[in-house]
């Protein structure tokens, strides 16, 4: 999970001379991001969500599938988010639900990066046939919205969180591939690439060391929005019954199960709904902040 | 423009075959046949059933046979309810989904564009702040959560709108708002950014210099150019509204096609799923071309 937080970060090593992005420019971006108070608040909130997901067994008093409490109880000191129709602690279910959302969010974008980054880089850098193939393949993928791709995956492989993660990753790689391609096309015309060529750098090394680090900023921004979209899609599919299966407590699943008790026990809808809403809001706000930080002139 | 349109239509063909091949491959990659359900059936009957759905033939031939029938307008037959044609479902159910989609598109553009314009003109003032906060929040609320809120507020507490069903205009309001409002937020942000950028162009300064008032500058000079990015995302928007309606239709009990698609996936009605997905994808491919042509018509500078 951690390597997706800094996508392509592994391929980036600060180098003394002709490196594309000097370490100080990372510092500049970070300083600009820090001034964006809402983005920092969002980052803090997301760290809390990640912590809740990781520490779920420690900070909840019962497992997410554990039954035996009084059913449909309103929030109290014992059950801060109340209990559901089977007498399960809602806070445990919301906390474990964070795991599912984050696994789908980060996992699908890791898959999208693993496919999109190399394909986009090769198509943009070497061009010709590889470029034509990539553009036609992405054309096809763009006419299939994520939800439809996910439906195809579910039809073929059944409903589970793993299948959804795979499906969303498979549906979203074209966006990243196109982005990387455009950035690579732009970067490879710059003067320092010519300088590297004249110094005798191999093509592969130019791509890896000089061109790719330039794409990191936009890729991080796009991945942030990608994670938020993936979490949204997972919730959506769980809501129509095609995602996490009971008793797995995905936020979308909790919402659809709680929906029947909307009038009698609205806490079953309010808490997972709030968790979902705040997480997506935080990811989008962080994405906005990152975009401003990496690209101070644009927007 | 005619030549461009023809060329653009031609590029559709490989993309369309790619989509159908992908969908076909996925649906047919399921291990085991659709009739291996454990139901007791004489082998001869199973053989007849498989022959009826062409399942006894090699996969490439199955694909070609299927494409032949798709090209003649027949999207196949349900494997769960024999005799039920996918095309029948499309002709019966799609008009309802299209109405919902069109109403939601109207909400997204009709609310999003004016709000974005107001925010841009009042940049960094109160009106802008309110619109932007609203848009950021609106874009983070999933449409099904918004639907639940609407059902709770308007349906149960205030009893302003009828819930569920279809047919009368009053029944369209809530689902169209639930489906369209998140995208109105998106469009508002996009319009705002685009208008602000356009207002910094040289020709706007020229217009101001020759004495055009602020309203005239925005309406006559900036607006059309500022709408270009909005046009570009309209194709994406249509795709999102169509797939978004899957959940809206079930929450508001609207007898549309989205509900049928979900049901076919849940009920392992493979041929129905395949046919409906191919219909959706074809629709979106065409929408893409239409949006490109509108783009060209709006901006004569663009030449392909």
Describe this structure in words.
The complex is a heterodimer of chains A (about 300) and B (about 300). Chain A is built from 11 helices and no strands. Chain A has about 300 residues and is an all-alpha fold. In chain A, helix 3 crosses helix 11 and helix 4 packs antiparallel against helix 9. The radius of gyration of chain A is 22 Å and the shape is elongated. Chain A starts with a helix and ends in a 5-residue tail after the last helix. Chain B contains 12 helices and no strands. In chain B, helix 5 crosses helix 7, helix 6 packs across helix 10 and helix 8 runs antiparallel to helix 9. The longest helix of chain B has about 35 residues. Chain B is flat, with a radius of gyration of 24 Å. The model of chain B has no long low-confidence stretch (mean pLDDT about 85). The interface between A and B is large, with 40 and 45 residues.
From the alpha carbons, calculate the radius of gyration of chain B and give it in angstroms: 24 Å
Q: Kindly state the percentage of residues in helix of chain B.
A: over 70%
State the total count of DSSP E strands of chain A.
Answer: 0
Number of helices of chain A: 11
Characterize the main sheet of chain B: none
**Terminal Cα span of chain A:** 30 Å
Q: Secondary-structure element order of chain A, as H and E? A: HHHHHHHHHHH
Strand content of chain B: under 5%
- Describe the largest sheet of chain A: none
CATH architecture of chain B: Orthogonal Bundle
């Amino acid at each position: 999970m951690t390597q997706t937080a800094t996508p392509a970060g592994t391929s980036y090593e600060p180098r003394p001379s002709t490196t594309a992005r000097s370490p100080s420019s990372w510092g500049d971006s970070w300083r600009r991001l820090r001034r964006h108070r809402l983005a920092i608040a969002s980052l803090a909130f997301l760290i809390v969500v990640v912590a809740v997901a990781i520490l779920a067994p420690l900070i909840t008093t019962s497992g997410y599938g554990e039954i035996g409490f009084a059913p449909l109880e309103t929030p109290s000191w014992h059950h801060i988010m109340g209990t559901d129709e089977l007498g399960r602690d809602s806070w445990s279910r919301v906390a474990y639900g964070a795991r599912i959302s984050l696994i789908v969010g980060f996992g699908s974008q890791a898959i999208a990066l693993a496919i999109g980054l190399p394909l986009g880089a090769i198509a943009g850098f070497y061009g010709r046939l590889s470029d034509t193939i990539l553009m036609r393949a992405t054309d096809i993928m763009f006419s299939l919205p994520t939800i439809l791709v996910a439906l195809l995956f579910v039809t073929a492989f059944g409903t589970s969180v793993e299948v959804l993660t795979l499906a969303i990753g498979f549906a979203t790689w074209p966006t990243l591939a196109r982005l990387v391609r455009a950035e690579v096309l732009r970067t490879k015309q710059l003067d320092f690439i010519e300088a590297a060529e004249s110094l005798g750098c191999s093509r592969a090394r130019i791509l890896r060391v000089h061109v790719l680090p330039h794409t990191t900023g936009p890729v991080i921004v796009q991945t942030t929005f990608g994670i938020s979209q993936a979490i949204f899609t997972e919730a959506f599919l769980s809501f129509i019954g095609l995602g996490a299966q009971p008793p797995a407590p995905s936020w979308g699943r909790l919402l659809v199960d709680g929906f029947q008790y909307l009038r009698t026990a609205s806490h079953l809808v309010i808490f997972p709904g709030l968790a979902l809403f705040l997480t997506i809001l935080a990811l989008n706000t962080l994405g906005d902040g990152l975009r401003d930080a990496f690209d101070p002139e644009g927007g | 423009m005619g030549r461009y349109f023809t060329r653009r239509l031609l590029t559709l063909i490989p993309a369309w075959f790619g989509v159908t091949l992908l969908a076909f491959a996925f649906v047919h990659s399921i291990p085991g046949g659709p009739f291996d359900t454990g139901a007791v059936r004489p082998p001869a009957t199973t053989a007849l059933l498989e022959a009826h759905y062409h399942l006894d033939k090699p996969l490439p031939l199955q694909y070609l046979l299927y494409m032949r029938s798709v090209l003649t307008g027949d999207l196949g037959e349900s494997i769960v309810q024999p005799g039920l044609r996918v095309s029948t479902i499309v002709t019966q159910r799609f008009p309802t989904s299209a109405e919902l989609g069109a109403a939601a598109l109207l909400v997204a553009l009709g609310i999003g564009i004016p709000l974005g314009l107001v925010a841009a003109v009042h940049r960094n003032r109160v009106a802008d702040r309110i619109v932007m906060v609203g848009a950021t929040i609106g874009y983070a609320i999933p449409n099904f959560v918004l639907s639940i809120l609407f059902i709770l507020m308007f349906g149960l507490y205030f009893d302003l709108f009828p819930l569920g069903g279809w047919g009368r205009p009053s029944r369209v309001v809530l689902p169209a708002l639930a489906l369209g409002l998140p995208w109105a937020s998106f469009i508002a942000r996009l319009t705002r950014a685009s208008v602000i950028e356009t207002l910094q162009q040289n020709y706007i300064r020229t217009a101001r210099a020759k004495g055009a008032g602020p309203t005239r500058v925005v309406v006559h000079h900036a607006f059309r150019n500022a709408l270009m990015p909005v046009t570009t995302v309209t194709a994406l928007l249509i795709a999102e509204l169509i797939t978004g309606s899957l959940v809206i239709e079930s929450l508001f009990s609207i007898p549309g096609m989205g509900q049928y698609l979900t049901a076919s996936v849940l009920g392992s009605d493979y041929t129905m799923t395949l046919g409906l997905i191919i219909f959706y994808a074809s629709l979106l491919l065409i929408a893409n071309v239409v949006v490109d042509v509108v783009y060209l018509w709006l901006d004569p500078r663009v030449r392909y």
